[in-house]
Design a protein that fits this description.
Blueprint (H helix, E strand, L loop, with lengths): L3 E5 L3 E6 L6 E8 L6 E5 L8 E2 L17 E2 L4 E2 L3 H9 L5 E6 L11 H10 L1 E7 L2 E3 L4 E5 L2 E6 L5 E8 L5 E8 L2 H8 L5 E3 L3 H6 L12 E3 L14 H14 L5 E3 L1 E5 L3 H21 L16 H7 L11 E5 L3 E7 L19 H17 L8 E12 L8 E11 L3 E10 L2 E13 L2
Parallel strand pairs: 4-8, 10-17, 13-18, 15-16
Antiparallel strand pairs: 1-9, 2-3, 3-8, 4-5, 6-7, 11-12, 12-18, 13-14, 19-20, 20-22, 21-24, 22-23, 23-24
């Protein structure tokens, strides 16, 4: 992320049909001075006051579902998430958005057209520094079967899991560090989508009036109707694009790792409100948001994990450590149908053995214990397992979130509470005891 604020060099314009209203609208993007933020102005309404992009100006997502809308008592501006996504990911801090109409143009259903518009306007850099918030503590929100997690990180990263069983989409996972270059190439071309059986429901809600087979991917059980994917995982990439658009409602840049599990606008914006509360608390307490200089140690890729614990294929059961502190660690195990144990457990009904779920949790615990300076180069052995509970099966396509936390710690012995989550729900939990010994 660049250090300094940006706007566009010159005014640019685009027209199109709104995806939900079906009405024609026009957008004009204009340069704005430093510390302005993103400001919308309804030009088709006389004497309309500007509306700043901020979570406080968000309209009720229950009243206006399936899109992100801002406004006030006099007017609304709908489906702004694709434009916001492009502005945020392309690092445009300050801009005036004049709009003729109540909804942003849908274009081809992606944010790529807005990226092209920003590039057409050119990017101008100011000398003023960006307003950046560095997340310092994890946040977890669950809503029905949707979940969203925010973790401290050294970069802005989004990971997302999508699950539409018995459809062409099925389960999809994607993860990207968000930079302008990656966003433009890998995320912005991804288009909005819906299932074939949702069409009548949306139309009865007064939505989707401007949707066509060209600007919306209509997913049947085994095909995309009258269209084809730009990416094999285009739906999950579009969900990442939407999530970025919702994060723009924070009104400042965020450095964090956001993990979405079937999340939508409603739960996304609840996360933004939580982060906004943290920002307010820091201002009240006088605590700033310094740049982390050592946070790289809070995440471990597979190569770094292998330097800490001795496990190797086929018994290395943690793919990544996404957060690790003095007394807590969170790891990920992506469970695929290619796992060796599914050959015999069980043919025709693959289920991950409970003992291996415990082993996966234990390996994250081992990383936590052996990452401590005084334990580097040593080995961690199980002493006991207690209070084991299995609450749901783990199958191919699931992603295990493995959370371990120190309960007691003596010189060479540690007791750890471990939990394994799938889709935000506990799959297994246990109390583990380790001893650390010389190799």
């Amino acid at each position: 992320m660049d250090k300094f604020q940006k706007t566009i060099e010159k005014q640019v314009r685009i027209e199109g049909i709104g995806l939900h209203t079906g009405e024609k609208s026009t957008l004009i993007l204009k340069p704005a001075p430093p510390d302005t933020g993103i400001i919308f102005i309804r030009k088709d309404i006389e004497n309309s006051e500007p509306v700043k992009v901020d979570i406080e100006n968000l309209l009720d997502t229950n009243r206006f579902p399936r899109r992100t809308s801002i406004g006030n008592d006099r007017f609304q501006i709908h489906t702004i998430e694709h434009l916001l996504s492009a502005l945020y990911a392309m690092e445009i801090d300050n801009i005036f958005v004049e709009i003729y109409g109540s909804e942003c143009p849908g274009l081809d259903g992606s944010s790529f057209g807005f990226v092209e518009l920003i590039k057409e306007g050119g990017i101008k850099q100011y000398n003023e520094e960006k307003d950046v918030f560095y997340l310092k503590e994890p946040i977890y929100i669950s809503e029905n079967s949707s979940h969203i997690i925010a973790l401290p990180s050294k970069e802005f990263k989004i990971s997302y899991t999508l699950d539409y069983p018995n459809t062409l989409i099925n389960s999809q996972f994607a993860s990207f560090v968000i930079t302008p270059e990656i966003y433009e190439k890998e995320i912005s071309p991804a288009r909005t989508f819906c299932l074939k059986e949702e069409i009548d429901i949306l139309r009865n809600m007064g939505l989707g009036k401007g949707s066509t087979y060209q600007n919306t991917l209509i997913i049947d059980k085994d095909k995309v109707i009258n269209n084809e994917f730009r990416f094999s995982d285009e739906p999950v990439r579009h969900k990442i694009s939407d999530l970025i658009g919702d994060i723009a409602l924070l009104g400042k840049y965020l450095v964090a790792h956001i993990i979405g599990i079937k999340s939508g606008h409603s739960i996304n914006t609840k996360l933004i409100r939580k982060i906004k509360e943290l920002i307010k608390k820091e201002k009240i307490s006088g605590v700033g948001s310094p740049v982390y200089t050592s946070i790289s140690s809070n995440q471990l890729e597979i190569e770094e994990i292998e330097k800490v614990i001795p496990h190797r294929f086929p018994f290395l059961l943690v793919d990544k450590i996404i957060d690790i502190t003095e007394n807590k660690a969170i790891g990920i195990k992506n469970v695929t149908v290619n796992e060796w144990f599914f050959q015999g457990h069980f043919p025709g009904k693959p289920v991950m053995p409970g003992v291996l779920i415990i082993e996966a949790m234990a390996q994250v615990g081992g990383v936590l214990m052996l990452s401590k300076e005084e334990n580097k180069g040593k080995l961690a052995y199980f002493m006991s397992v207690d209070r084991v509970k299995f609450r749901r099966t783990v199958r191919p396509g699931d992603q295990l979130i493995l959370e371990v936390e120190v309960v007691k710690l003596r010189s060479k012995v540690g007791q750890i509470q471990a939990r394994a989550y799938v889709d935000g729900k506990i799959a297994a939990e246990a109390l583990l005891m380790f001893t650390v010994v010389e190799p």
